[in-house]
Amino acid sequence: MSTAEHRRPDPEALLAQVREEERRASRGRLKIFFGAAPGVGKTYAMLEAARARVREGVDVLVGVVETHGRPETAALLEGLPVLPRREAEYRGIRLREFDLDAALARRPGLLLVDELAHTNAPGSRHLKRWQDVEELLAAGISVYSTLNVQHLESLNDVVAQITGVTVRETLPDSVFDAADELELADLSADDLLSRLREGKVYLPEQVAHAVERFFRKGNLIALRELTLRRAAERVDAQMRGYMREEGITAVWPAGDRLLVSIGPNPEGARLIRAGKRMATGLKCDWAVAYVERPGQAISAADRDALAANLQLAESLGAETTILSGHNAADEILAWARGHNVTKIVVGKPTHPRWRDKLFGSVLDQLVRGSGDMDVYAIRGDAGDRARRGSPTGRASPLEEYGWAALVIAACTALGALVFRTLSVTDVAMLYLLGVGVVAFRYGRGPSVAAALLSIAAFDFFFVPPFYTFAVSDVRYVLTFAVMLVIALVISALTLRLRSQAEAARERERRTAALYAMSRDLAATRGRGEVAAAASRHIESSFAARAQILLPDAEGRVSIPVGAEPAFPMDEKERSVAQWVFDRRRAAGAGTDTLSAAQALYVPLAGAGGAMGVVGVRAADAKRLQEPGVERLLEAFAAQAALALERVLLAEQAQHEQVEAEAERLRTALLSSLSHDMRTPLGAITGAASSLLEDRGALAEPQRRDLLQAILDEAQRMNRLIGNLLDMIRVESGALEVQRDWQPLEEIVGVALIRLEERLKGRPVEVKLPPDLPLLEVDGLLIEQVLVNLLENAVKYTPPATPLEISARARDGAVEVAVADRGAGLPPGEEARVFDKFYRAAPQGAGASPGGVGLGLTICRGIVTAHGGRIWAENRPGGGAVFRFTLPATGAPPAGVPGEGAER
Fold first, then answer.
1. Which residues pair with 742 in a beta bridge?
2. Segment 246-287, tens digit of pLDDT
3. Which of 902, 743, 763, 879 is nearest to 819 (CA)?
4. Residue among 270, 265, 483 at smallest CA distance from 388
5. Is 302 in contact with 262 (CB distance < 8 Å)?
6. Are 32 and 147 in contact (CB under 8 A)?
7. Any bridge partners for residue 813, and if so which?
């Protein structure tokens, strides 16, 4: 490939760059003021930068800034426009939060939003403040914000280990990495402690506690180092992004970065150790890369050595990567340029020089294509030792050479049959066809042997003088040479095609396996289902037994309840699985850690931590350490972890939703009780006090009115408390239905008698057909349903509004309806009226809803307990009607009508 072709821009990369530029053009810019701890001056630096922007004519608005009582910070706020905060109430506490809607409506040029990792008050649009900032940026508003290193999600456990304090408010690293600009607010540990003792960070009474815990000098030094390292990584990523955007392929040695290239042989360990020493001396990051050629097969010993070398590199702190491609040098150089590598380390070649002349030298290609990078060739790697038998790494047993000889013999026999009718050139074509067949079927070694045999056979049998290797015509020498070259080219092209086909089949197999697993996992709901599906796919893909272990509330992993163990697990195996879960590192059979275990254990690592552990027990444990197999197993583990995390998040969301609903219901209940109990209590108190203070001034009718008011309000309170008790019975499942055969007209009559006082002045029309069947129901409960429905109609209709009670038999049930001619139900609220604590707005003059909002909910519970259903709808011509059904199946035994009548 020419230099021009190698540097030709990737169209997909250019398109992605254009799209990214368009996205940035429509978004606001985010600048984060980053620090190691509270008090280093992040907010102060942000306000100073904001005042500088004001002097430049930028419309700056303070969205939310926490001064924490620091006078110098508060002084910088003077003169800056401040957005009023919105008030939110949570558990009786008034919280002042950032007003996102007001900020979006105001649309300033620059908005100051302090404490990016802050958690918003419950009921806010977003759970986290960084989500508010994301919405602001999407609306084109630029934002300045602040962040401490302990709030980064990836460093949360590290900070907890250093300080002993677990930070609950965290920020995804992706938000930090996506910031357009980063400014470091740095302060030494001694200076920060001085500020702390001077009361410039916390109030004086909090200083001693802070110094004893979080603000220990060792903690501050470690946090400062984490901050500087994370900021340096961010700057390095920005530099690589700039180089990528500008199409800069040259290496910018802003800092050394080392890459060690190894092969699949034991000698690679010496190269890795040498690379570690060089990286330590240079104080730089380093990586180890192995190039896997498509279709390449390596021996079992070299396969084990490669896995061991990669594990060694990881244990020494290197980043490991496995590349794939036909040209190892091109892949190494491409990866090095993409990661700003300055130095490449490879092993000295130990194979014969003719190999380089015939098949090319990886070292020579690296040196010539390295550009500004340094290439070090050191002793330690045996180079292509695993490929000595065949440059592609394919083993060629004697049987394959024998088959190659047979194919050439068959071509010779076929040539002898057609030699008298065809030309010598046609016979040569037969041999080239045979070489192609051997190359496709048996590999490079047998194909080269077939090419040489075909030349010899062609000369011996078909070139005069016949049956001798002597050549009478010198022109045949050129024919032999061209024939050999063409045979070798056909062999090479056929082998490449075959390796590409094998690689495509392998990728297809892996992709299909991952797709099948992701599809099944997407359809699962519980953790047990996820574990079962993942185990099933791992077993089928790796021909091994797989067992997923999930953690309990205390973090102890175990087999899911109800699942059958895939293989025996004693206490030793469980302890290995627990070790893997706690440390999020693979261990067990085939590894250097706890290798005495019977299975390989891999952590199911999600974004929020370890979700569990998968144990894989194979007949050949070392096969699981092959680079391709290991990567596939890690991909399966990642898919399972994502599914488990999805289930966990769904459970948490449901739990939070239940808690929020419970809190809403408690608030509604207390609000209703405080209102509806206060009214009758006030009336009772007023009437009773009037009677107590009476010294004979009240006439008898007035005294009776006061006593009647006390009785009415006491009955009202009794109804409220009765509704609450009935609701508790319905919700807890303690509602007992004592069925008895009864006529519906008697139940309706008793209900009307109970409400005689409340129904005064209202015409009530009862339409009950005489042929209604007897119903096997609990008369007292159905009577309560009718009472609640009638009371509901009285509450929501003006005085003197007519009411109607009707019933009819249909489809093996009796349908009862309670209707009115009021204002009807609000559109779309027909189903919601049966929800707990739901109370519609008063309809009509003089209507007052009152109540707790439980009456219709109780009706639904009672009707459902009887096997019926209840619904509401608006009537044609105005008004509402509530209908419910009661089963009317079976026939009552003899004598029941009389018993029902007596009841």
1. 775
2. 666 555 555 678 999 888 776 788 888 888 888 877 778 889
3. 879
4. 265
5. no
6. yes
7. 810, 887
Q: What is the per-residue pLDDT for 146?
A: 94
Among residues 367, 229, 227, which one has the least CA distance to residue 285?
229
* Secondary element (H or E) of residue 379: none
Contacts 24+ apart (CB under 8 A), 555-563: 555/581, 555/582, 557/581, 557/612, 557/613, 560/527, 560/528, 560/531, 560/532, 561/528, 562/528, 563/528, 563/531, 563/532
Note the maximum CA span of the chain.
155
Q: What pLDDT, in 10s, does the model give residues 554-608?
A: 888 888 877 788 888 888 888 888 888 887 888 888 776 777 788 888 888 877 7
Contact 110, 80 (CB under 8 A): no
State which H helix or E strand residue 813 sits in.
strand 813-820
Strand partners, 818: 805, 882
Between the two ends of the chain, the Cα-to-Cα distance in Å is: 101
Taking the CA atoms of residue 605, residue 610, residue 611 and residue 613 in that order, the dihedral angle to the nearest 10 degrees is 80
Look up residue 422 and give its amino acid.
Answer: L
Give the Cα separation of 775 and 900 in Å (integer).
10
What beta strand segments (E) does 666-794 contain?
Answer: 740-742, 764-767, 775-777
* Contact in structure between 375 and 346 (CB atoms under 8 Å): yes
CA–CA distance, 367 with 716 (Å, rounded to integer):
95
Residue 163: its pLDDT value, please?
77
Strand locations in 269-326, DSSP E? 285-292, 319-324
> Who's near 673: CB < 8 A, 6+ residues apart?
720, 852
Q: How many CA atoms lie within 13 A of 413 on its CB side?
A: 6
Q: What is the model's pLDDT at position 294?
A: 64
> CA nearest 311: which of 635, 582, 591?
591
Taking the C-alpha atoms of residue 65 and residue 43, their distance in angstroms, rounded to an integer, is 8
* 3-state secondary structure (DSSP) of residue 88: strand
Q: Tell me what the pLDDT averaged over the chain comes to.
A: 78
Tell me the pTM: 0.43
CB 603 within 8 A of CB 597: no
Instruction: State the Cα–Cα distance between residues 388 and 12, nearest whole angstrom.
Output: 39
Q: Nearest CA to 193 among 210, 206, 178? A: 210
Average confidence (pLDDT) over 616-632: 74
pLDDT at 882 over 90: yes
- Give the full edge-to-edge strand order of the sheet including 110-113: 60-64, 110-113, 142-148, 30-35, 181-185
